[in-house]
Amino acid sequence: MKLSQVQQILEAQLWTGGERLESKVYAACGCDLMSDVLAFAKEKVLLLTGLINLQVIRTAEMLDIKAIVFVRGKKPSQDMIDLANERGIVLFSTDIPLYPACGLLYEAGLRG
């Protein structure tokens, strides 16, 4: 699924990476525990989380996660936006809670 489709489905605000919206992700991971992300995330995955701190960006960088969606109306800090820009990570935020957001993406064909 293209990141532009993710943005549309989740009615998400784009914070970084507008030039990468045609990139594709092949799976999604919905999680607030970064230890679980480290254990279960796959390649070319979209991370959905309600956790807002720099560790989320650093974890995504370690796992080569190219896009993060912050759920429940959470918005990244300027430090997070700056780091994501440096690392080439697309950031979105949506007002939709984690479980329904994952369900909408699953229903649209993005699997876990």
Fraction in beta strands: 15-25%
- pLDDT < 50 stretches: none
Helix coverage percent of residues? 25-40%
Radius of gyration, CA atoms, in whole angstroms: 12 Å
Number of helices: 5
User: Outline, from the CA principal axes?
Assistant: globular
- CATH class value: Alpha Beta
Distance between the termini: 12 Å
Mean pLDDT: 92
- Major sheet description: 5 strands, mixed
CATH topology heading:
Udp-n-acetylmuramoylalanyl-d-glutamate--2,6- Diaminopimelate Ligase, Chain: A, domain 1
Helix and strand content put the structural class at alpha/beta
Which architecture name does CATH use? 3-Layer(aba) Sandwich
The SSE string, one letter per element, is HEEHEHEHEH
Task: For the largest sheet, list the strands in their spatial order.
Answer: 1-5-4-3-2
Overview of the molecule:
It is a single chain. The chain is an alpha/beta fold and 112 residues long. It has one domain (3-107): Udp-n-acetylmuramoylalanyl-d-glutamate--2,6- Diaminopimelate Ligase, Chain: A, domain 1, CATH 3.40.1390. Helix content is 39%, strand content 19%. It has five helices and five strands; from the N terminus they run αββαβαβαβα. The chain has helices at 3-9, 34-40, 54-63, 78-87, 98-107, and strands spanning 13-16, 27-30, 45-49, 67-70, 90-93. A five-stranded mixed beta sheet has the order 1-5-4-3-2. β2 (27-30), α2 (34-40) and β3 (45-49) form a beta-alpha-beta unit. The protein is globular. It starts with a helix and ends in a 5-residue tail after the last helix.
